[in-house]
Design a protein that fits this description.
Elements: E1 8-12, H1 16-27, E2 32-36, H2 39-49, E3 53-57, H3 65-75, E4 82-87, H4 92-101, E5 105-108, H5 113-123
Parallel strand pairs: 1-2, 1-3, 3-4, 4-5
Helix pairs in contact: 1-5, 2-3
């Protein structure tokens, strides 16, 4: 029997058509999932809820994925969550910039939900 606390995943993406099915798929794996629809809301939830992993869109209103990423890295004194940048912008320079800044994975849209769930499981140590 697994007595470890439930891992938390935060999805930060302004596209509700993507976040809802992704949330359901990740919850089906046993994770607690929270959703934020812009960068500012995402930062608030990171501060309040301390997710173990963040799925972060690059292009969003109010604050870009890179601005959110920089804020996470600067302000996470005790523990930085795993970060997966998910974006429709597949230019190689964005991938390189994201990886250089410390994201754990960079996944272009469109993606298969099963592949993204597999990445979540790998990064959070679930086999």
């Amino acid at each position: 029997m697994n007595t470890s606390p439930q891992k938390r995943v935060l999805i930060i993406d302004d596209d509700e058509g993507l976040t809802e099915p992704l949330q359901l798929a990740i919850e089906a794996e046993g994770y607690q999932v929270m959703v934020a629809h812009d960068g500012n809301e995402g930062l608030m939830k990171i501060e309040r809820d301390a997710p173990d992993l963040v799925l972060l869109d690059l292009v969003m209103p109010r604050r870009s994925g890179f601005a959110v990423l920089d804020n996470i890295l600067i302000n996470s004194r005790h523990r930085t969550p795993k970060i997966v940048m998910v974006t429709g912008n597949s230019e190689p320079k964005y991938r390189e910039l994201a990886l250089d800044r410390g994201v754990d994975r960079f996944i272009p849209k469109p993606y298969h939900i099963e592949d993204l769930v597999k990445t979540v499981n790998e990064l959070l140590g679930k086999e």
